[in-house]
Amino acid sequence: DYVIVNGNLIERSEARLDIEDRGYQFGDGVYEVIRVYNGKMFTAQEHLERIVLSAKKIGMELVYSVEDMKKQLTELIEKNEVKLGTIYMQISRGVSPRNHPYPNPVVPHTLVAYTKEVARPIPNLENGVKAILKEDIRWLLCDIKSLNLLGNVMAKQEAVAAGCYEAIQHRGDTVTEGSSSNISIIKDGKLITHHADNLILNGITRRKVLEVCGKGNIPVVEEPFTLSDLDAADEVFLSSTTSEITPIVEIAGKQVGNGQPGPVTKKIQALFDKEIE
Ligand code: PDD
């Protein structure tokens, strides 16, 4: 398999990274996961614009443009002959003797990208998954797709240890997002999902969901909802690049609705499927 390291397409075994890379030592960088369907990147523009924005929010001005990155990633997919999979890419603040302040002068950022074959999660899409509830203990810049994922990782682990797929996080009474996904609820035919602010990552899949709801005449409200709204919801689902639109059929041991994926979620799944064809 080939990978990209700083603009070079090389064999994975040839890739070398410094132990004083700030991504490795401080989690000082940003990342994206992009889906590949039919050998083509899905919503590449949105993902690449988001990584530029994430970088900017942590004071990194990227040398690569969105177009540059798209071109490099397209080459990578073609080289690896990925038909159905993902691209992982991350950009760190670069290599410098370990010291908390940003390197001054600025050093070259470290960009790496690689691909993976990943199937669509068909059983989960059809049957739904279980979730736990978890206090959101993360920092207050969750809009940045930062390499610092310890809060997310610990939340996910708690879910997995409980035999569940995802942790639905909440700050006090307000539901924010999953450990690696956004959360939406359906109540009386209407979709409710947390608005895009500093408490959630504005997921590209989340945006697609809102877009297809527009096309499918499903009313949407972007506003915070509470744990009791979640409890009273007719349907609940999570969305992410790899999980797509996955129904949540059980939360903290309690069935959502009748414990089956609901009709509105299924309609959104069908509308989403049309987008990726
Ligand atoms: N996770 N919220 C968080 C905290 C996430 O990590 C993700 C994505 C999302 C959904 O974003 P999108 O629809 O753009 O994938 C929301 C990726 C897939 C990951 O870390 O693997």
TrEMBL record:
<dbReference type="InterPro" id="IPR036038">
    <property type="entry name" value="Aminotransferase-like"/>
</dbReference>
<keyword id="KW-0808">Transferase</keyword>
<dbReference type="InterPro" id="IPR001544">
    <property type="entry name" value="Aminotrans_IV"/>
</dbReference>
<dbReference type="InterPro" id="IPR043132">
    <property type="entry name" value="BCAT-like_C"/>
</dbReference>
<dbReference type="GO" id="GO:0047810">
    <property type="term" value="F:D-alanine-2-oxoglutarate aminotransferase activity"/>
</dbReference>
<comment type="similarity">
    <text>Belongs to the class-IV pyridoxal-phosphate-dependent aminotransferase family.</text>
</comment>
<dbReference type="InterPro" id="IPR043131">
    <property type="entry name" value="BCAT-like_N"/>
</dbReference>
<keyword id="KW-0032">Aminotransferase</keyword>
<protein>
    <recommendedName>
        <fullName>D-alanine aminotransferase</fullName>
        <ecNumber>2.6.1.21</ecNumber>
    </recommendedName>
</protein>
<comment type="subunit">
    <text>Homodimer.</text>
</comment>
<dbReference type="InterPro" id="IPR050571">
    <property type="entry name" value="Class-IV_PLP-Dep_Aminotrnsfr"/>
</dbReference>
<dbReference type="Pfam" id="PF01063">
    <property type="entry name" value="Aminotran_4"/>
</dbReference>
<keyword id="KW-0663">Pyridoxal phosphate</keyword>
<dbReference type="InterPro" id="IPR005784">
    <property type="entry name" value="D_amino_transT"/>
</dbReference>
